[in-house]
Amino acid sequence: MGGAPDLPPDFDVDVHRVAPDADTTAGPHEASMEAVVELCKRRGIIFQSSEIYGGLRGAWDYGPLGAALRDNVRAAWKRSMIQLRDDVVGLESSILMHPRVWEASGHVEGFTDPLVECRSCNTRHRADHLEPDAQGRVTCPNCGSAELTEPKAFNLMFRTYVGPTEDTAAQVWLRPETAQGMFVDFALVQLASRRKVPFGIAQVGKSFRNEITPRNFIFRVRELEQMEMEYFVRPGTDEQWHEYWIAQRWQWYLDLGVRAENLRVRDHAKEELSHYSKATVDFEYRFPFAWNELEGVANRGDFDLRQHSEHSGRDLSYYDQERDERYLPYVIEPALGVDRCALAFLIDAYREEQAPTAKGGVDRRVVLKLHPALAPVKVAILPLSRNEALTPTARRVSDLLKPRYLTQYDDAGAIGRRYRRQDEIGTPYCVTVDFQTVEDDAAVTVRDRDSMAQDRVAIDRLPGYLDERLALSGASVPG
Ligand code: ATP
Hints:
Elements: E1 17-18, H1 33-42, E2 46-48, E3 60-62, H2 64-83, E4 88-90, H3 99-104, H4 107-110, E5 112-117, E6 124-126, E7 152-155, E8 159-161, E9 171-173, H5 179-184, H6 186-192, E10 199-208, E11 223-233, H7 238-255, E12 263-267, E13 279-287, E14 290-301, H8 303-312, E15 318-320, E16 325-327, E17 330-337, H9 338-349, E18 350-356, E19 362-368, E20 379-383, H10 391-401, E21 407-409, H11 415-423, E22 429-433, H12 435-441, E23 443-448, E24 454-458, H13 462-472
Parallel strand pairs: 1-12, 4-10, 20-21, 20-22
Antiparallel strand pairs: 2-3, 5-6, 5-7, 8-9, 10-11, 11-17, 12-13, 13-14, 14-17, 15-16, 18-19, 22-23, 23-24
Helix pairs in contact: 2-9
């Protein structure tokens, strides 16, 4: 490759590709869903929305650590997709859009899932998710009855009304994807940011889908957050760019520590393609319940810009000065969910290990080996005990680190137990202040989460020591 300036640069990434009909059986897993869900609840990472009222299906709340994890997922994506690139700009478009957007995009007509109802227990299911039983019959997963209604198309968009009247003229939709914001704002953003094709527009934001069967914790939810990028290219260069973005996205997961054996890229079969798509691949993760979609990377052709040009009457074509050509750009779209990818990161990081105790025994430890860029808390400050000789120094260490990272100060209970508490939320470094610190060397012990190795570091060298280790790993360090 190379030559034409609008072709992708060379890349050398070994992506594991599988056929459309690849087996989805996950096989034995180190982390069970139950263990991850239990940890998330107990440590206030993720729990049911409105729990005191019995919860609301498909809606989840992210507690203090979960909120920090989400921030880090978004930041890691924006850093790689926008900050480190010259050819992608950011956008935050609104959740409520003109209703005609969703007519043009095909969502009013076609954003549906096939719904069946069980005549026996009245539960509703997504027909394309039902597996035939041993006799080849499709049965209700709730009661086992084979008495199911014929599938009917159910539109997944939530509707609401703008203004005081609840009639069809006032009806709007909650967006089911962020992508349409990038398409309808394409010309404005291109002009204002003076970008030439090829270039991309990226956005992180909430989307809503009235899923028939939300399930598997935060895997399939009704209120989700997406990270999507629309990359506009000259027609004819789209296939190369599609391959390029598949490789880039693959590398992103690996750079964030996801184990390559738990990731694969599956081509869509022709009949599986969405109405807008020329070609799509799914990034699949080996979730404990099955290999399943984590991210889609689609070649959307010129479908969206063409539709919006026709429906709005505004010409969204692009004039390519170098080639003296006017065309509707083709679009390559990597799209993933914050929630779903946070789940994959949590599962991938979850380990149960044997650890030696101070007294020479062995102890079980649960450790989240999250990449430091994703870890909610970067450093914990742990005075050896709650002794008044130690507290002022420990507080001083904490004040030194607080402006740089999210830290936690914990002086309650035995030090071994406090290490375990930090291990199970994935804190990469624990800093211990002991009597030697205050009486003798003005140094602290820094413990590494994964190796459990300990280093003695002078307090005045501590920020540099940690910056170096965390920055090397891509965690953002100010200054
Ligand atoms: P499915 O066929 O599983 O319903 P989809 O193929 O319609 O999903 P896309 O429209 O490609 O999904 O959405 C892009 C990404 O957004 C998905 O790969 C996933 O990470 C995320 N996503 C979509 N729907 C949900 C949901 N209900 N809950 C959580 N994440 C979602």
